[in-house]
TrEMBL record:
The lineage of its organism: Bacteria, Bacillati, Actinomycetota, Actinomycetes, Micromonosporales. InterPro entries: RlpA-like_sf. It comes from the Bacteria. It comes from Micromonospora vulcania. This is Rare lipoprotein A (RlpA)-like double-psi beta-barrel.
Length: 137
């Protein structure tokens, strides 16, 4: 998979952690807010039918299942984190055209949701969204 550029956000799952209350275990059943995990829009046909990144022009998003490792780089500061798939999401088509920038680094359309633990390794949770690139190496 070539690096995919877009936006990174964060979400809560599993047992209470940091800013999160108790939530479900995600599509994979293993999601925990305190772990380095993420949601990916193309984990299955059912997931892709919900998230619809294609409606936003996002192409090249490979099918990856539970446990697959991606690396997300915050384009604002170069910080990078490795996480494994634990859920389906984000629902990219709800945010078509959304853009986040810091300086000249910009990303459009939400392509990955990190758990709070993973997101806080590359950005402040209060930032909410950051431009990013996602790859597999």
């Amino acid at each position: 998979m070539a690096a995919l550029r877009g936006e990174v956000s964060w979400f809560c799952c599993g047992s209470a952690w940091g800013p999160c209350g108790t939530a479900g275990g995600g599509a994979c059943g293993t999601c925990r807010s305190g772990n380095y995990q993420h949601a990916w829009p193309n984990t299955s046909d059912a997931c892709l039918a919900i998230t619809r990144p294609d409606r936003c022009g996002v192409t090249g998003m490979s099918r990856r299942g539970c446990g697959f490792r991606h690396y997300t780089t915050n384009l604002c500061n170069g910080a990078r984190v490795g996480t494994t798939i634990a859920d389906c999401g984000p629902q990219t088509d709800l945010f078509c055209g959304e853009s986040t920038c810091c300086g000249s680094a910009c990303g459009s359309n939400r392509i990955i949701d990190l758990t709070p633990a993973a997101y806080s390794a590359i950005a402040s949770l209060s930032a909410g969204l950051r431009p990013c690139s996602v790859d597999t190496v």
